[in-house]
Amino acid sequence: MESISNPLYFFSNLSLNPPPCSNVVRFIDVLEFFFVAHPLSGRKEGEEHKRIMYFHPKSENIERQSEITGFAEATVNFTDNFLCTLRRDVAENLNDNDDGFDFRAISTQRTEHVYIRTEDNQFMLGVSISKQLSLVSDYPLFQPAIRSILSDAYKMFRMFFGTFSSFIKNGPDDISKFKERLDFFFSKYIPLLKVHKMPLLDHLGGVEFLRMSGPLYLNVVSLITELREEFPIIEKIMFLYQDKLLYYQLSKRDLPSLFRYLTHNLLPTTLAPELEHSGRNASKGRYLRGPTDLTTDAPLFGDESLSVVHLHSEQDPEFREDLIGYQMMVYRCLNATVCMFVRNDNSNGEMGFRRSSDSSQSSSTRSTPPQNGVVSRRLLRNIDQFLEAELAQVASKIGDEIGDEKLADNTDFHYIYFNPSSLSMTSSLSTSPSLSVSSSGSTSSSKVSLPPVDVNRLVCDTMSNFVSDTEEFGECFVKSSSDWWIVIKKVNSRLLVLILPPSSYTSSLADVQSKTATIVKSHFEAIFFS
Predict the structure, then answer these.
(1) CATH 3.40.50.1000 at 7-204, yes or no
(2) Predicted pLDDT at 468
(3) Which spans does this entry mark as compositional bias, Low complexity (predicted)?
């Protein structure tokens, strides 16, 4: 089963154990439990355990699983009574996170619990983080970040397999199949998931864009336009260089999950082979998933099949949750990656495992869509012929322009910048494992050591207590007990967090204000105030 169109084929286990100096921690190292529940399935007395669709760890006995999920359901139902009041609108504002999922958060002496409800509140996902394990791992607990991690886990499953409700339409057989899918996905996803020791990064969940000159950006747009005109069957496109996004044509609701999958899982698996390529093969493009032999027109089956992802329509309103299945083609050349999406006419809620293929073509022209809109070897071959020369030229120009700009300023501070309207985020603390590693092995762009855990915690506490989500402007200066300074600025809802290490140049608030003004002017003025 796992070899057939397996999206987890590229859930990379590179650097499974982060080094001690890393800015990430394995989620499983601080996790007490994680579950997916369907409350309607456990309504009858004595059958409460049937609401459990997935539970981690699997070693937990069924009575304990029922107790945990029952407590979560009771908590949600009890607090619902308080929301059915005249203050419903206010409560909803406090109760819905940025993803639109209804959530509850509970803090105990030992753990932090977060529950979210999805798909018209039919399903519940829950997670518990151990405070003791978090302390050992230097991971500061920040409830908004835990909510985002839980929401992202659901979105990642939905992207590859469709909605939960699509699995349980007809009866007990569907429930069994649903449990298999959940186990198949989360038993791999959870052990490989890494979270930042700066939880604010996971909470914001932005996408890092590559800055480039106008003429070069027009070259990228021209290439994509020509590609769409030559192959009109391609409906959506993403263009990345290394681990940064240049261009995309898909709903912003899907962008963070897809970007994270590409940069943290799929693309890192290609780095080692590319570094070993000789100069003769360096400009040769290739598909990262699918058939290696494009000389025949044989149907695509098994490991040669392309993954199907379920994405929102760009035209749908934000409250619409309708998903469309797309076959995903990922083509890479000279650090440039083009991700193309073709509508899968035979898609359904289980299309993460079943694929249709078609080897017959009605025309020899390379722009003729395959029968039924399903990707064939011929289409892959024709796109390869088109992109091999065109993409290599554009990628070479991008490499020449940014070669000396890889944030090699050796900055003497740490920063986080986030623009909520575009989802653009850049930070000296973010990590795209294995993608930022150069052939020389260098990964750092800052002269400053990573902030200690108390500073990371203070940043999160300051965001929660002194920075309003509803205010578009604001400024806050905080000094830690270890003499680190934290500066938080909001301009037109754009967020900038500066983390300044102890220094003789930042001994007073006036010094910090002067230093902040210099940093903003020299590094962030173009994107922060534009």
Answers:
(1) no
(2) 85
(3) 358-371
pLDDT, residue 357, reads 36
Q: What is the pTM of this model?
A: 0.86
Edge-first strand order for the sheet with 414-419 is: 424-427, 414-419, 494-500, 485-491, 474-479
Q: Which residues pair with 477 in a beta bridge?
A: 487
The residues that bridge with 499 in the sheet, in sequence order, are: 414, 486
Cα–Cα distance measured from residue 196 to residue 2, given in angstroms and rounded to the nearest whole number: 29
| 63 backbone dihedrals φ, ψ, rounded to 5° | -65, -45
Please, what is the average pLDDT of the chain? 82
CA 238, 241, 242: angle at the middle one, nearest 5? 120
Reduced to 3 states, what is the DSSP secondary structure of residue 112?
strand
Which residue in this structure is represented by tokens 């796992």?
2
**Alpha carbon 237 to its chain's center:** 17
- Residue 300 DSSP one-character state: P
Sorted by where each begins, the domain ranges of the chain are 7-204, 214-402, 414-528
Contact assessment for residue 111 and residue 32, using Cβ atoms and an 8 Å cutoff: yes
Residue 292 has a pLDDT of 85
According to DSSP, the β-strands at 474-479 and 323-333 are unpaired
Q: In sequence order, what are the beta bridge partners of 485?
A: 479, 500
Contact 398, 241 (CB under 8 A): yes
Structure tokens at 89: 């609108």
Q: Are 206 and 399 in contact (CB under 8 A)?
A: no
Low-confidence residues in the chain, pLDDT < 70: 1-21, 83-99, 170-172, 270-283, 315-321, 346-373, 403-410, 431-446, 528-530
Residue range 230-245, pLDDT digits in tens: 999 999 999 999 889 9
What is the C-alpha R_g of the chain?
A: 24
